[in-house]
Amino acid sequence: MKLHSDRAREVVSFLQHVDDPLRTAAAIAAKEPDAAEKVEIIAAAAANFGDRINARSLQALARQARDIAKGTGADAAVERLLGISTVAAQWMAALMLEAFAQHARAAEVLQAIKDVTWREERALRLQALARNLIREGRVQDAWAPLQQAAKAAEARQTLVGVGQLLKEASRTEQPPARAVRRVALVGTGTLSFWAEALKPALYGAGVWAEVFAGEFGQYQQEIVDPESGMAKFRPDVIVIAVDYRALGLVDVFSDPDAAVEGIVAQFRGLWTACQERFGAAVVQFNFEIPEIDPFGRLSAAVAGGRSRVLQQVNLQLWDVAQRANVAVFDMNEAAAEYGKQRWNDAGMWIAAKQYPAAEALPSLARRLASLVRAACGLTSKCLVLDLDGTLWGGVIGEDGLAGIRLGGDPEGEAYTAFQRYVQALRRRGIPLAVCSKNNEADALSVFREHPETVLREDDFAVFLANWEPKPDNLRRVASMLNIGIDSLVFLDDNPMERNFIRKELPEVEVPELPDDPALYAEVLHRTYLFESLTFTEEDQRRADSYRENAQRSQLAAGSANLDDYLAGLGMKLELQAFDELNLPRIVQLINKTNQFNLTTRRATAADAVNWMRDGNCYTQAMRLRDRFGDSGITGILVALHEGDVVRIDNWLMSCRVLGRRIENAMLASVMDFANHVGARAIAGEYVPTAKNEQVKDLYDRLGFARIQDRGDGSVVYELRLDTSARPATQWFEVEDSTVTNAPQNQSVTV
Amino acid sequence: MSAIEDRVSAVFREFFGDDARELKDETTFADISGWDSIAHVNLINALEAEFDTKFSVRDVMKMNSVGAIRSVVTARAGG
């Protein structure tokens, strides 16, 4: 182990207390006049903190590396850094090798570095790798890292840098790409800023494009003048990106309808010109609704307000563009996703007509690229999913149905939420496939039997659960669906599996997944791999959910009274005794429900198991389904047969299903049990807490008599069975298996 | 040269390569090929990223020479 100098040791102990030790070390090294000491400091920092990299520290260290490379002792410094296995040390060593023009070695070192994040840091690494491969003359090997760098880059400078490398490499050979297009950008604002970001972003999306940026503020001339720059460019795709400021909007329009029509008509005319003159595909930007508006909310509240007019323009554009075969790019949504505050840079608009802000350009470029990709027919065609850890927590083959996490607790609910997102993709027309290392029977059992599963067996177009290598299975999926292997998107929670597929089948899209399943849906969403231009009639027939939503709002609008509303919901209740499969969800509900909870008695899984096994205990788990979906288990009741009374010990309902009289059905079932065991009465108890005031008089409303008012606010109730009617349950279809499935009752009735 | 001036020079070199080897306070657009209006905006954005700051409209108007840029940056980021 190398000993560091005293100064270096001092610096290291100081750096322990700093937020960004590497960047600070770079700053300290920059000021160090002695070359040898500089190296000591850098090496010590790299050894101690070298995996705590971020984009800024990588840039700062790069600068230091290049500086050291120019000085004395550089060779020794490189060898020293190569011997330190942290990311920072390897990074700097590689850049020093690059400075010595040892590109092959630099590329080798950069290739071997493991990405700490898949974001800007990865982009910087791949950019450096590609640069060295190009310098080495291995242009054919640089395309893949360039494409990946374009996908990962977040800083505009990085994306632009990748674009410059692409330009350089393309002088040697044609870049491999799935599509080649000539893309013209016309509109308002300084479009040349976009062009530099768009070209690499398009390459990241698989499209090699020549990008033309129209003259400042001359979008109509570019389209209409036969001698315009764009005409000479002969575009395949024309992007019309006019910003809201160019529309000449006033604060309040006296004739808003005419204004909206006028704006839309203007663009419709331009589309016709684009299509007739150039035969080009047209992408029309809609308009960001400005956040900064002196009229504030009135801009939308007032009928002729600017914001309202813009919203109406945007709405009309969707319809009119669809009919004209033009694709709308949702600029307003892109700005909202990024954050309108950061999207707009007032100073830069004033000084340079730059819109959106420089830092927002990569985000814009990537979204636009995904739309152009879709316009080139490259939308991904199938989502292939691993199972264990991806669609549920745990391993079905080891943990069994009762042990995997699916629904029931936050981790389980993260997976059901993800299943819902995936299922919606299927309904939208994207086929799903399974590719899992599992016994087929085990894998299928979840979709066939698990009470919380959202996805069902018939949601999958192809189901490959076996022990064969995943690349073979993926090829089979592609051939069975008659689509290219490059149309597949593969999701797997295991990073080793992901990297393996990326190596074996580089054409398959394998998005990086975070550790947290709660983020799976949004990470998949933001790849925009399934961004689509059309939703065909055939897809529409499969879109049951859309119909259901329409019906739901009709129902709410139409019901004059509660009775009709409840009847209209088509509620089906399933009342079951507790069982092993439902236990996690049951225990979760018992411990987290606060509002509709009569006694707030928490319980452990062991308690629940005891109830299940106790012959004198009645357990009820209530599951609600209605016309619009399955709410799952949302009610729990535990009652104990004690002498001639059945005492309700625990009664709670999820706040999701309140206000529907479901308590009537739950009580009716207890009454059936009480009659079955020959009890005289049902006893109930209300124990007040800070949160359960809403059930203070539940028992009163259900016809119970107050037996005892204890001093602390709690109340004991009783319902005599001989004089009490069964509560109304006409709005429900009830399937009650609590009594028949209850363990054999052994108590003696009086 | 102060740390800030070093970093400004480093950004220039990263932008303009060898053309920016010798930077004097008096160096302007005209002296470095490739320093056009688009590059100027890119340069300002890069300086904002480098120094973690935001230049005001007034700042941008002043930044016409290397010297002016150095003093604006020092005022903004020098602390």
What is the compact description of this entry?
The complex is a heterodimer of chains A (750) and B (79). Chain A is an alpha/beta fold and 750 residues long.
What does this structure look like?
The complex is a heterodimer of chains A (750) and B (79). Chain A is an alpha/beta fold. Chain A contains 34 helices and 18 strands. Chain B has 79 residues and is mainly α. Chain B is globular and about 25 Å long. Classes of the chains: A alpha/beta (750), B mainly alpha (79). The A-B interface holds A 27, 30-31, 63, 155-157, 160, 190, 192-193, 347-348, 350-352, 354, 358-359 and B 3, 6, 10, 37-38, 41-42, 45-46, 48-49, 54-57, 60-61.
Coarse morphology of chain A: globular
Overall mean pLDDT of chain B: 84
Helicity level of chain A, as a percent range?
A: 40-55%
User: Could you give the distance between the termini of chain B?
Assistant: 16 Å
Helix proportion of chain B:
55-70%
Classified by CATH, the class of chain B is Mainly Alpha
Which sequence of SSEs, written as H and E, runs from N to C of chain B? HHHH
| Architecture per CATH nomenclature, i.e. the level-2 architecture of chain B | Orthogonal Bundle
Radius of gyration of chain A: 33 Å
Q: Any idea of the CATH topology of chain B?
A: Non-ribosomal Peptide Synthetase Peptidyl Carrier Protein, Chain A
Biggest interface and residues each: A-B, 19 and 17 residues
**Based on CA inertia axes, which overall geometry of chain B fits?**
globular
Class by alpha and beta content of chain A: alpha/beta
Main sheet attributes: strand count, strand direction, barrel closure of chain B: none
Question: Low-confidence spans of chain B: pLDDT under 50, at least 5 residues?
Answer: none
The overall pLDDT of chain A, averaged over residues, is 90
Give the N-to-C terminal Cα separation of chain A. Answer: 84 Å
Rounded to the nearest angstrom, the radius of gyration of chain B is 11 Å
